[in-house]
Design a protein that fits this description.
alpha/beta; Rossmann fold; Dihydrodipicolinate Reductase, domain 2; 9 helices; 16 strands
Length: about 375
């Protein structure tokens, strides 16, 4: 194994603990410090999860012994923090989305190239056992040539359960920017990059009413589309359909399915690392569950570990900045297509992430 790599985390909100546990499972990662604009919260979280050092953001960025910054801030400041980390000569791994505008995403990728550092970005759920199993089934020809795919993430919005749901209806969120990266990254892992899209989007209700927590009854203005229906033409020839919505009370839809010339795969929620994978080959009377070929006992943080391995061994990382920007480019294009009544050609491209090898030991990845 390569020498341990020290990481610093900026942002100690709700997902902080998940990353601490996920990163802590990998021997290559040494969680050295955390920072937040709210130092009191950072100190509380550091004490809760055993992080040895708390410091201001500027101090963490200036530390020459911490080469990787994990950016867990809110989406609207992802670009600001990632660019600051890159400017300090550090590699950066960001929570999704990479940025909230295509322009800021381009700035991040370009700045990293100029500085000679790497950018990684969530989601890394496509590195979990269920999606890696689907990837192996496709690569091994179980369903023949992939011809189509569908992805559905539908519900009636987080105001019913989230204690502070305003963010979900602001620029940088909505159902597509909040959940779309899981589904789109999963599809790209399975089918490769996208060449063009079209779609229809709408803000179905101009405001929402908070139901839970201290904000119960408060009106929330809606800034972003809450129902997005998109069509994707993949470079490899497959056609995909995706719907993300905060406007649907009930549905009976699959999360993710891939249809091939010789059969079909039904995959579980791509927001998760595990779940049941089903296959139904041509001529079969029913679906069959496939044992997972890869471990589902990983969590958010495997993408950070993969970045550290990639730096140490000089190989491409899987949850890369190019993949994240391609996803951002696609998400921005759905609304542009809807507003313009057209297809939008996707100028960006990314490599299809390399599959994980079989038989990895717990806490390690491949060199």
């Amino acid at each position: 194994m390569a020498t341990r790599v020290r990481i610093g985390i900026i942002g100690t909100g709700n997902i902080f603990g998940v990353y601490i546990r996920g990163c802590g499972a990998f021997d290559i990662l040494d969680i050295a410090a955390c920072a937040d604009i709210d130092l009191r919260r950072a100190e509380e979280k550091a004490d809760e999860f055993g992080v040895p050092r708390v410091c201001p953001v500027e101090e963490l960025l200036a530390d020459p012994d911490i080469p990787i910054i994990v950016n867990l801030t809110i989406p609207k400041v992802h670009a600001e923090i990632s660019l600051a980390a890159i400017g300090a000569g550090k590699h950066v791994y960001s929570e999704k989305p990479l940025a909230v505008t295509r322009h800021d995403g381009q700035r991040i990728v370009a700045a990293a190239g100029e500085k000679g550092v790497r950018v990684g970005c969530a989601p890394d759920t496509f590195l979990g056992g269920s999606q890696q199993t689907c990837r192996k089934l496709i690569d091994d020809g179980w369903i023949g040539e992939p011809v189509a795919a569908v992805a559905f993430m539908v519900g009636h919005g987080p105001e019913w359960w989230h204690p502070n749901p305003d963010f979900f209806y602001q620029v940088g969120a909505g159902p597509m920017f909040d959940m779309g990266p899981y589904y789109l990254s999963g599809l790209i892992n399975l089918l490769g990059p996208v060449r063009r899209v079209t779609g229809s989007t709408r803000i179905s209700f101009p405001e929402r009413i908070a139901i839970s927590g201290l904000h119960r009854g408060r009106k929330i203005p809606v800034e972003v589309p809450t129902h997005v229906a998109g069509v994707l033409d993949f470079v490899g020839g497959s056609i995909g359909t995706i719907i993300t919505s905060f406007d649907i009370w009930a549905a009976n839809l699959p999360c993710l399915e891939i249809y091939g010339s010789e059969g079909s795969i039904s995959a579980p929620d791509p927001n998760l690392f595990g779940g049941c994978v089903l296959v139904r080959r041509a001529g079969a009377d029913e679906w069959s569950e496939v044992p997972l070929t890869h471990s589902a006992e990983v969590d958010r943080g495997i993408g950070v570990a993969d970045l550290a391995y990639a730096i140490a061994y000089g190989r491409p990382q899987r949850a890369s900045g190019d993949l994240a920007f391609h996803v951002l480019d696609i998400m921005c294009s759905f609304d542009e297509a809807s507003q313009g009544g057209k297809h939008v050609e996707i100028a960006s491209r990314c490599a299809r992430p390399a599959p994980l090898p079989l038989g990895l030991r717990t806490g390690e990845l491949d060199a």
